[in-house]
Write a structure and sequence with these properties.
The chain has a 7-stranded mixed sheet. It has a 7-stranded mixed sheet with strand order 7-8-9-10-11-20-21, covered by helices on one side. Strands 14-13-15-12-16-19 form a 6-stranded parallel sheet, with helices on both faces. With 462 residues, it is an alpha/beta fold. It has 15 helices and 22 strands. It has 2 domains: 2-216 and 405-461, Ribonuclease Z/Hydroxyacylglutathione hydrolase-like (Metallo-beta-lactamase, Chain A); 221-403, Rossmann fold, CATH 3.40.50. The chain has helices spanning 37-43, 64-67, 70-75, 86-113, 127-135, 221-237, 251-264, 278-288, 296-304, 307-310, 320-325, 347-354, 373-378, 409-417, 433-447, and strands spanning 2-5, 18-21, 26-29, 56-58, 82-84, 137-139, 146-149, 152-158, 166-174, 177-183, 206-210, 241-245, 273-276, 314-316, 333-337, 360-364, 383-386, 389-392, 396-399, 425-429, 451-452, 459-461. Helices cover 33% and strands 21% of the residues. The N and C termini lie close together (6 Å). It is globular, with a radius of gyration of 22 Å. Helix 4 (86-113) packs antiparallel against helix 5 and helix 4 (86-113) packs antiparallel against helix 8. Bound molecules: zinc ion. Zinc ion binds next to loops.
Length: 462
Amino acid sequence: MKISILGAAGGEVTGSAYLVETDRARVLIDCGLFQGGKKADVLNVPPVAGNERLDAVLLTHAHLDHTGRLPLLTRTGYQGPIKATPATMELTALILRDSAKLQVSEAERANRKRKAGRPEVLPLYTPENVEVTIQQLAPVPYQQALEVAPGIRATWAEAGHMLGSASIQLEVQDKGKPKRVVFSGDLGPKGAPILRDFEPFHRADMVFLESTYGNRDHRPFEDTVKEFTGIVQEAVQNGGKIFVPTFAVGRAQLLTMLLAWMFRNKKVRPFPIFLDSPMAIEASKIYQHHPELFDDEMNAFLKQGAVGHDLRTLKLSITAEDSKKINDEPGPFLVLAGAGMCNGGRIMHHLRHNLARPETHVAIVGYQAGGTLGRMLVDGKKEVAMFGEKIQVKARVHTLGGFSAHAGQKDLLAWFETIAPSKPKVVLTHGEDEPRGALAKLIQSRFGLRSTSPKLQDVITL
Ligand code: ZN
């Protein structure tokens, strides 16, 4: 059998896609968008050509870097199933619809700036394309082997990374010989609240392991909660305003639950919280549909009292008008708004109005890529440019490292440890060169296993 690496390789972390081929079947694992500028745009083509056979697409989870090229695939002729857990199906629909809207508005903006005689810029895909993709999503349960293509059975297991996330094991009959291949997908940190911890597989001939944080561990979650609680307590006491740039799916729900926990345990008196993101509001509803995916601690918390009562000061800002009105509110309050890296979205106008005020707090809870406003704030820049004006940064910027949705080094090794005794071939993907190299060394020294780090378009035979 052959496995082609069609994304998230060669030091790249976006664009995840693997094509598994036997003499009888062809299956695609994930179909992610390449993200990050012009270089990424050229790579955003369908991973399999429209006239080629493809039996099924299997999704590990809903993040755009794992699902964002699906509309290209279905638009160019793929009509088969896209198999995913029910929560992944719902979140994929939400994320792809948002992505299409963004593609359309980016194309419109490019066309407004277009010089005469230049060809019209077309969006990568449209909302109509996405609706077709959504029709092809098909649900799968966790921990049940399903025939997904002739001679290929797939099992989804909890990955603890986002609601509905999974690692996928394939049992492949290739010319009569059974082989097992495991794709870790993105793995979450052990012990993080809300979601269950990952469930590793026990045996494999080949393992594809993500390596995003292969070189380090995160700050312990408890320490980060303490730090966040301290920031909130101080801001509330002083009537301050806290702005949290946040991704709509995952971090927004985690922080809302933490605030509920703080209120219930009287760490701080209830004060206004604005969930200022229609997408985060939708994602929160999807979370509420899936208590079966919560960990014991979360279920106990829900059983012990009504979260709706804890969060009675939570306000949902749906329209842009709602969002603007927050500016007139007196402190203390906390705003959760996108984009997570302050590179667009509603958080921008909040920061424009408040960065120059010393009573403002900005809590950074996620990864900030180089060149983004979020990164400049983390780096302690005293002046930033926004909307064509220079703004002094007098706000206090807090960087909270422990809220990551990705497993750190220790947890990646813990996941691998269960499968290591079966001596699989190890393929490291989804990591920049340094973390991937560090993880390769550790796997060699701890388990005596060599690993390979493929490049984009490499083909691995098993
Ligand atoms: Zn992910």
